[in-house]
Amino acid sequence: MSAIPLSPIAEPWHLPSRGRVAMLSLITGESAIFTIFVVAYIYYIGKSLSGPLPGQVLEIPFFNTVCLLGSSVTIWLAEREIDRGKMRAFAAWWAVTIALGLVFIAGTAMEWHKLIYVDGLTIRTNLFGTTFYSLVGLHATHVVIGLLGLLLILIFTLTGHVTQKHSERIQVFALYWHFVDAVWVVVFTVVYIVGR
Amino acid sequence: MADQTLPIAGTLDVTPRRRSQAQVLEWLHGWVVTVDHKRLGILYVVYSIFFLLVAGVEALAIRWQLAWPGLHILSPQVYNRMFTMHGTTMVFLVGMPILFGFANYLVPLMIGARDMAFPRLNAFSFWLTAFGGLLLYYSFIGGFGLYGMGNAPDVGWWAYAPLTAKAFSPGHATDYWALALIVSGFGTLGTAINVIATTLSMRCRGMSLLRMPLFVWLMLVTSGLTLITITPLTAAQIMLLIDRYLGGHFFDTQAGGSAIVWMHFFWIFGHPEVYVLVMPAFGIASEIIPVFSRKAIFGYPAMVAASVGIAFVSLGVWAHHMFTVGMTSVGNAFFVLSTMLVGIPTGIKIFNWVATLWGGKIRFRVPMLFCLGFLFQFLIAGLTGIMLSAAPFDWQLHNSYFVIAHFHYVLVGAIVFNIFAGIYYWYPKVTGRMLSETLGKWHFWLFLIGFHITFDTMHFVGFLGMPRSIYTYEPDRGWNHLNLVISLGGAVQGIAVLIFAWNLVHSYFKGKEAGNDPWDAWTLEWAAPSPPPVYNFATDPVVRSRRPLWDLKHPDDPDWKYEA
Amino acid sequence: MHSTIRQHGAKATRVSSLLVLCIAMLSSARGWAEGPLGSPNIFAPDSTPANSIVDLSWFVLAITGGIFVTVGGLLVWALVRYRARPTDDESEPAQIYGSTQVEIAWTVIPILIVVVLFLTTARIIFAIQDAPKPQVALDVTVVGHQFWWEYRYPKLGIVTANELHVPVSSALEPRPTYLHLLSADVDHSFWVPQLAGKTDLIPNHPNDMWIDPRHTGVYLGQCAQFCGVEHAKMLLRVYVDTPEQFAAWVEQQKQPGVQDARVAAGRHVFETEACTNCHAIAGTAARGTFGPDLTHLASRSTIAAGAATNTPENLHAWIQDPDHFKPGALMPAMQLNSNQIDELVAYLTTLH
Ligand code: HEA
Ligand code: HEA
Ligand code: CUA
Ligand SMILES: [Cu+2]
To answer: Which of A102, B16, B192, C245 could form a disulfide with C241 if both were Cys (CB 3.0 to 4.6 A apart)?
Structure first.
């Protein structure tokens, strides 16, 4: 029976990992969502009809930012460890990542608490409130989702279900976390630097 | 050529499985829990055809009301719901899912894969889409809000702010609109990711990117475009819901919000969206035209480049829907230019299709007839698009029936025609039986005639100043008889669609046995049995050119000798 | 006085006879008989912006028509010439995979066409949009409401509704009208095809457009942006007056509402029922702004943005139940008895 290939093909056959492709696609789509929110934020800077205004109430969250960006480094270290099969070190760095993420979320919660109860800024107060809570909230939602994922993986690691052969998948997941961090850089710049 | 025994590795000699005697419930359960790309593809297509009938009936209701001035078939409120639901349904519940249905069914087969990259995500996406559709239609019964205001959405498919604000659209109809589209939007996103991962990571040996069938290429480009177009809509709708539920001010013009911003966000989605709809249709044409001309596609690399080019340019043209909102003259001019530029890659596609016909031996079977209808109508539709893109001309034509005519020429004349072509072409593969050629010809000619009666005439009422979205019109404007003609054409289309539906059902039971390769075609899906088994190919195929079955049928003159 | 409905500009006759030809093929002969008299045909322009648009339109139509004939012709030719014939043998035709030269040719030619189209279009955009505003121009502020039009003449101190009056403009004595477009609620669009292209009225986003009608008469149009239930009945009438007529009209509109003792009963109803919450009549206590100004209601030939002609019977029907003409209009049925309504109508018909 002659098959479709009349002669076997010599060249080796490499295809990109589907997980990585899918995650990059997801990130592309998510970026578009964030772009729209960021554009709305920028467009409405200075268009609020009443206060409070960003300059009056926003404080620059340096500590938060350092934590979140730091978590990108720690997750990268974790990725390296699992690639080498050092599962304990992996779990440790992974846990540090989670801790840093939690600090970030706690920081945001405190910031919001102050804005709402001290400054009286809610999502319905003015355009600044609407765009601020939407954009920062959208990002925070992503952090929370990321944290849930991280936590799940940590649990599986501690129960021994994650091994070196999952390194590829871990890296795919880590891509998402890197993305969330990168988005923060944009949000931070727009909200706390440009918009203040 | 009905050679049932093509000796191809990668196929298994399985006689088509007819449904077993198992109980109906079990059969149904099988469909609900399926993760097989072929079954999901079929589900998508059936789902869309169902909604095509629903939205088609809505169109007929619209046309009945407009057949003559001053009719009272529909109240103004109901009319507004009808056109909103018609447009929304046709775009989101017919156009998108049917094309993704084709992609689901065909992409793995065409690239020699066993399934999509993520079968479970695939099923999840379908059910999200389906749920979105149900949610949208549930608004007819569930949309009553305070004081019985509202029902189905009635704000137009573009849903311009601030008409969508709580103050002007009380009740929950608008919420259903936004929620339904967010939900089905996530479904679409999932499918798009899946298609991309499948085409990039699941190709069989030898199926390099530049050997993929054009259909697969166009689905890849479409999916890429989907990633960055459907998401802005989701974002904008989240904002809309924040406004409506949490008291936000994104589009609240009383609090400094901007109506224009919604328009930008909507069309940043809306324009690329129309290319998301049309490119899979291009893909279908790019498969069918060569087979029935008996020639390889002319200028394959140019076709690929043009598709990518269209996708890129289409990201920068959205404000041609907004020439009348008072942009600066420079802004207007910019969008005129970018819009006209789309004509260049699109022209390349049209020319390549015509060149494929050139020198062929054209067989006028039903799929080809529909494709030729597409070619002709898309040419006209594109040219009316160019007229609209000349901003001052658009200041007159915007929101007139000329625009309605333009986009039905694309959406019906190009896309629906190609969907029909695709169904006639691949139905044998999916069911193992041919659709009736006689009924098909009736379907084609009636639909063609009805289409032209309806949509050719619309251009002229547009010239005569008839705006869209009106439930009735003054009897002294010279629009009366033209509208009657338009409505009659709608009825003719309706008859044609009924014939098609009958053909689908009838041929399923009584159609001629198709065999593996009824059209004597060249892409991998025709190497699998009809219908293909769950695993598609018993052994993974290996290809050396764009037309593996051509190579097989013409060992003396294979394609790979010529392709670069 | 405003009896003729304007149709034909200078070259419009040629244009619309062409159109007539096209359309006559599609619609029955009788179908055409009802038009084009009342038809707001975009190819029957009578004002500079509309004229330049038609010039551009013909140019674009000619180019796209040329492309259509060429490409469509090639397509049909290919189908006829290369159809499979019963006499054919089983062999496949020669396989041609492409040609770079041809590919380049049909990329470059469209690029050139696009350049030409773009430059022409851009010229017209700038000519219309950036035209300098002459001193003599009349200013009118147009406010879109769900589902009626408010017109204010800020320099003349006039407020009116639904029927716009502007002076005729000629080459010798140009007197263009500049419209400043606002919206009180949702998006609308001002479209009188024979005078200019449409421009949207968007809340929080003022727009401007201009017209300079060349002939007297009435020009028809309607709201062209979906704005809610009664978008279909938000009709536009533009009255183009001679300078004398216009001056007279202005004088009349500046007067407060007529006070006629014979209809005092109606006036009393008007002022005591809730009408005054929404309507204004200069010279009375009525100051409402939610509905149209009624000071000179009787000088208008239609009511409710063209939904009905302005006759006592229609006024009666309107006040009794606005939904009769305009289901979904934002004026409520006021639950008055027939007698009260008669008195009201008697009063309203004196408001010249
Ligand atoms: C699948 C759908 C689809 C497709 C493919 C297109 C294709 C195009 N459309 Fe269309 N369009 C819609 C669907 C589509 N459109 C819809 C749904 C709306 C209305 C939405 C709403 O308001 O509800 C709309 C509205 C719309 C408008 C806004 C009208 C208005 O509301 O005022 C404009 C304006 O520029 C426009 C332009 C174009 C152009 C230039 C193309 C081009 O892509 C066409 C390119 C093709 C050709 C030009 C023909 C082939 C080329 C050649 C033969 C080469 C030589 C040609 C030249 C050099 C010019 N479209
Ligand atoms: C894919 C997209 C698509 C398709 C296929 C169609 C198909 C048709 N459309 Fe639609 N249309 C839109 C997309 C589409 N439309 C959009 C996006 C809008 C804008 C909406 C908006 O402004 O918000 C619009 C708006 C629109 C309007 C303007 C309404 C208005 O502005 O007031 C009109 C008016 O004539 C119209 C008519 C038609 C007609 C006659 C068909 C025909 O081709 C339909 C033919 C099909 C049938 C006739 C089906 C027949 C079925 C049966 C007979 C089934 C019987 C079955 C059972 C009993 C089970 N459409
Ligand atoms: Cu006002 Cu439509
Ligand atoms: Cu567009």
So the answer is: C245
CB contact set of B262 (below 8 Å; sequence gap of 6+): B159, B160, B161, B164, B236, B240, B250, B251
Mean pLDDT of chain B: 92
User: Do the beta carbons of residue B327 and residue C201 sit within 8 Å?
Assistant: no
Whole-model pTM: value is 0.93
Measured between alpha carbons, how far is B107 from B44 in angstroms, rounded to an integer? 14
Question: Tokens 């019963």 — which residue?
Answer: C86
Contacts of A160 (CB under 8 A, 6+ apart): none
Residue A73, token pair as written in the block = 């480094």
Ligand lying nearest the CA atom of residue B76:
2
How many helices (H) and strands (E) would you count in chain B? Answer: 17, 0
To which H or E segment does residue B373 belong? helix B366-389
| pLDDT value at C54 more than 50 | yes
ipTM higher than threshold 0.95: no
Question: Could you tell me the pLDDT band of residue B30, with boundaries at 50, 70 and 90?
Answer: confident
φ, ψ for residue A22, nearest 5 deg? -65, -45
Cα–Cα dist B377/B366, whole Å: 17
Listing DSSP states for B6-61 in one string gives ---TT----PPPPP-S--HHHHHHHHHS---HHHHHHHHHHHHHHHHHHHHHHHHH
The closest CB to that of A17, out of B118, B201, B203, belongs to B201
C261 φ/ψ angles, rounded to the nearest 5 degrees: -60, -30
> Is there a contact between B423 and B369 (Cβ–Cβ < 8 Å)?
no
Check pLDDT > 60 for residue C225.
Answer: yes
Mean pLDDT of A113-138: 95
Residue B23 confidence (pLDDT): 75
What mean pLDDT is predicted for residues B108-124?
A: 95
**HSE value, Cβ hemisphere, 13 Å, CA-based, for B302:** 26
**What are the E-state strand segments in C242-344?**
302-303, 308-309
> DSSP 3-state assignment of A179?
helix
**C79 → closest Cβ in B359, B372, B479:** B372
Other residues' Cβ atoms within 10 Å of the Cβ of residue B98: 27
Q: Which of B503, B520, B396, B506 is nearest to B442 (CA)?
A: B503
- Tell if the CB–CB gap between B399 and C189 is shorter than 8 Å: yes
Which chains share 3+ C-beta pairs under 8 angstroms with B? A, C
- 8 Å CB contact between A134 and B239: yes
pLDDT(A91) > 90: yes
The verdict on a CB contact (< 8 Å) between B302 and C235 is: no
Whether the link from the prior residue into B162 is cis, omega within 30° of 0, is yes
